[in-house]
Design goal:
By secondary structure, the chain is mainly α. It has a single domain (3-88), classed as lambda repressor-like DNA-binding domains (434 Repressor (Amino-terminal Domain), Orthogonal Bundle), CATH 1.10.260. The protein has 6 helices and no strands. It has helices at residues 3-17, 23-34, 38-45, 53-63, 67-70, 82-88. The chain is globular and about 30 Å long.
């Protein structure tokens, strides 16, 4: 997993959410919103840590993006829901 890509994409997506600018408050908000420890939240905010796969999937779901995009494995930002897939068949 490319931590630089994760950091850039995660930072961009959380900026859209309008989290507090102050680091302590932003860390608390990220921790609570994504269900990670404050240590993990702080590491994610500084690009030093990438969450484990199960947490990454949950974060991607909350951000409404593809977890593969978030981790840098694809350039497709959104996943196709099963309904959208069924509609195209």
């Amino acid at each position: 997993m490319n931590s630089k890509v994760f950091y850039e994409r995660f930072s961009r997506e959380i900026a859209i959410l309008g989290l507090p600018d102050e680091l302590t408050e932003k860390t608390k908000a990220v921790s609570k919103l994504f269900g990670v420890t404050r240590y993990m939240a702080n590491g994610m905010l500084f690009g030093q840590l990438v969450p484990p796969a199960e947490k990454l999937d949950k974060i991607a779901e909350i951000l409404d993006v593809c977890s593969d995009w978030l981790r840098g494995a694809t350039d497709r930002k959104k996943t196709y829901s099963s309904r959208e897939t069924a509609d195209t068949n």
